[in-house]
Amino acid sequence: MRAIRGATTVQKNESSEILAASRELLEKIALENDLVIEDIVSAFFTMTPDLDAEFPAVAARGLGWNHIPLLCSQEIPVQGSLPHCIRVLIHLYTKRTPDSIRHLYLRQAAVLRPDLASTPQ
Fold first, then answer.
1. Contact between 92 and 68 (Cβ < 8 Å)
2. What fold does the segment set 2-111 form as a domain?
3. Among residues of the chain, what percentage have pLDDT more than 90?
4. Domain residue spans in the chain?
5. Catalytic residues
6. How many helices and strands in the chain, by DSSP H and E?
7. pLDDT (tens digit per residue) in 49-85
């Protein structure tokens, strides 16, 4: 079992933006890691306190993650932390080695892990 991390940001606290950014993040994580839905054990989402217009798990359900336990929570409100940020931790069964797992940090979230970040959009 392994875990994949990822994060992204949105411009506004709007349902459509949260869903689009979450969907984009999950699709890119799935593509980069050759994910098979049946191998996903669970996914844990957090959002910064300035986001509350939608659950990011709704985007996962829209991608067919219907039998995967999903949980959403609020990120710890640390002063000076990146605003409008959505994070995910996906647990899965895989034969990939830890160094072959691709963690994705999109948009402004690239500043969180520049060593792992995808090209910001």
1. no
2. 60s Ribosomal Protein L30; Chain: A; (3.30.1330)
3. 90
4. 2-111
5. 5, 61, 72, 75, 87, 105, 113
6. 2, 5
7. 999 999 999 999 999 999 999 999 999 999 999 999 9
